[in-house]
Amino acid sequence: MYLLGERIQRDKKVRVKSPYNHHVVGELALSNKADIPRVIEIAHSGFEMLKNMPAGERAEILNKTASIITQKKEEFAKAIALECGKTINEAHGEVARATNTMKLSAVAAVKLTGETVRFDLGGQSKKMGFYTRVPLGIVLAITPFNFPLNLSCHKIGPAIAAGNAVIHKPATKTPVSGVMLAEALVAAGLPKEGISVLIGPGSILGMELVKHPAIKKISFTGSLEVGKAITEHCGMKRVTMELGSNSAVVIFKDAPLSLVAKKVRKGGYTLAGQVCISIQRVYVEQDVADEFLRELSLEVGKIVYGDPLLDSTEMGPMIDESALSKAEQFCKDAREHKGILILGGKRENAIFLPTIFHNVAEDALLIQEEVFAPIVAVNTFKTVEEAITKVNNTKYGLQAGIFTRDITKAMQCAQAIDAGGVLINESPTFRVDNMPYGGTKGSGFGREGPDFAIKEMTEEKLIIFDQL
After folding, report:
1. How far apart are CA 304 and CA 311, in angstroms?
2. pLDDT at position 203, please?
3. 458 and 364 share a domain?
4. Do 212 and 302 sit in the same domain of this protein?
5. Which helix (H) or strand (E) holds 49?
6. Burial (CB count within 10 angstroms: exposed 0-12, middle 13-18, buried 19+), residue 89
7. Burial environment of residue 253 by CB neighbours within 10 A (0 to 12, 13 to 18, 19 or more)
8. CA-wise closest residue to 353 among 295, 314, 322
9. pLDDT at position 202, please?
10. What CATH code is carried by the domain that includes residue 88?
11. Which of 62, 142, 274, 332 has the fewest CB atoms within 10 Å, i.e. is most exposed?
């Protein structure tokens, strides 16, 4: 728990454990519902300071925060690897992205402008006017375990850039890097009232905050089920929902299969598949299905898994026992739905082995739901229309990938696939932090990327002048 620039000390603590060996890697004070009124009061004070702070000064704070994260990159990377089980190399990559996200947020702060408005479109008018963008107030950032630093930056950076105060509720399993980020912001010059971090179960703390009338904006990344609960209880608030997915890849027979197999290896098994845009479904043209399956099996079979702190490790553990059990259930269901197990399909302690299924029925959990595990289903199609239908036949729509040299087929898929992003000759797991990122259907609404998020964290204020 972090309030007014300090880590609060309490007898009741959250013990943060390594998903790999279950060793305690950190302890932080547990927040409770009684803390919320005080935190809201602090955030109100922070908002009054930040909304009146020049945009250039807010930008400078964000740039300084990026510099502090860079200076402490080893400390941040180790904290991420220990608390969420990400490999040390993946953690270093996240730290680098987080610094970039904060720099992009600084740019968004100084770029944020309004426009002039015409009043003579219906006839002569002496009026002139413009609108500006003003901050909303208090932003509630609820972040997941899998990118505990960068996804926090994606919410907190634009919120501060716009002049809002932030209450951050990180995942209870991975709160350490979130508190470290708050410390970096205050060290960079952010008023200590501008950022608070509450740590505890989302079902208790999160829902109380969601319902509180002082909260003006909720930015949430997590499951569809929790997203639905938030929208049912939040009332009239601005909401951004970055929810689940079961991202699909379509591979046509003219694609370079060995290259695509390498991309699927990376896109399906990074962070043990615990990524919203992780590849879960692969649809390959029937004529080359056997060849592609061989290429993919060879690639996935090379994945080195184990201790996330070793440089040689490519894939670390699942986040907890519940995630492992869910992966086992998905594999059991895939077998019951005619799926042929090619690789993996079981756990070794905290590791779920990189897994491939072939020809899984389209109504199986592995096709319809989000597994959030290192499991990929490879199915086939014969026509473009069939591939599009299969990709769209789920409740999710975050990102999808198409591999082909045929521009006509690529554009047909891009236009017809119902997703927030369609990538041609690239994995749907690809993301850079300045792009508009978000989904359709059960994958949520609203967009992240500082230039886009900042607009959702402000509102237009119209000012009109008339001649007397």
Report:
1. 10
2. 84
3. no
4. no
5. helix 36-51
6. middle
7. middle
8. 314
9. 87
10. 3.40.605.10
11. 332
Shared domain check, 318 and 449: no
**Same structural domain for residues 252 and 238?**
no
Query: Tokens in use for 251?
Result: 């591979």
Do residues 317 and 427 both lie within one domain? yes
Task: Give the side-chain half-sphere CA count within 13 A for 457.
Answer: 35
Q: Which of 183, 193, 242, 285 is catalytic?
A: 242
- Short-list 112, 137, 168, CA closest to 50: 137
Among all chains, which residue has been given the structure tokens 């890849």?
249
Q: Which domain holds residue 305?
A: 248-436
Helix (H) or strand (E) holding 357: strand 355-358
d(CA 177, CA 193): 19
Is the pTM higher than 0.85? The answer reads: yes
pLDDT digits (tens, 9 = 90+) for 91-103: 999 999 999 999 9
**Among 56, 8, 52, 54, residue whose Cα is nearest residue 30:** 8
Task: Verify whether residue 448 is a known catalytic residue.
Answer: no
CA dihedral 202, 204, 209, 210 (to 10 degrees): 70
What does the pLDDT look like over 324-382, one tens digit per residue?
999 999 999 999 999 999 999 999 999 999 999 999 999 999 999 999 999 999 999 99
CA–CA dist 152, 164 (Å, integer):
15
> Catalytic: which of 276, 314, 331, 456?
276
CATH number at residue 394: 3.40.309.10
What residues contact residue 325 under an 8 Å CB cut-off, 6+ apart? none
**Which of 251, 168, 183, 188 has the alpha carbon at shortest distance from 425?**
251
User: What residues have CB less than 8 Å from 1, skipping those under 6 apart?
Assistant: 7, 8, 10, 28, 29, 30, 31, 35, 197, 198, 199
Question: Does the annotation mark 331 as catalytic?
Answer: no
